[in-house]
Amino acid sequence: MPFGRYNLYVNYEKCGDFSTLADCWQILEDAYAKLPDPYGDSLHWEIHDPFHGAAFCKFDMEGGIWEACCEDSKTFALYLDLVGWDKMTT
């Protein structure tokens, strides 16, 4: 059985196994903060659930979008309305 419930990949490299999505979000927050242009540059990230054998979200997201989505859950829902909710399940 895997160590954590969720496997996080940033730019196709595994960052670790995490017990909660909050742990994944913190690693993503740190990764976005390290970008040369934290608002204009983007990261590709995926969260996998090994218990279900698939990624349940994949994104290529600019830092500015990430920042806005972290500020307000309604903004994140609006973003998903624009790019497609299938991003959360493909």
Biggest sheet statistics: 4 strands, antiparallel
Distance between the termini: 23 Å
CA-based gyration radius:
13 Å
The chain-level structural class is alpha+beta
Number of folding domains? 1
Question: What's the total helix number?
Answer: 3
Q: Strands of the largest sheet, in order across it?
A: 2-1-3-4
The H/E string reads EEHEEHH
Q: Helical amount among residues, as a percent range?
A: 25-40%
Question: Average pLDDT, to the nearest integer?
Answer: 81
Can you put this structure into words, describing what you see?
This protein has 90 residues and is an alpha+beta fold. It has one domain (6-88). 37% of the residues lie in helices and 31% in strands. The protein has three helices and four strands. It has helices at 21-33, 63-71, 73-83; strands at 6-10, 13-18, 42-49, 54-62. It has a four-stranded antiparallel beta sheet with strand order 2-1-3-4. It is globular, with a radius of gyration of 13 Å. The model has no long low-confidence stretch (mean pLDDT 81). Keywords: Plasmid.
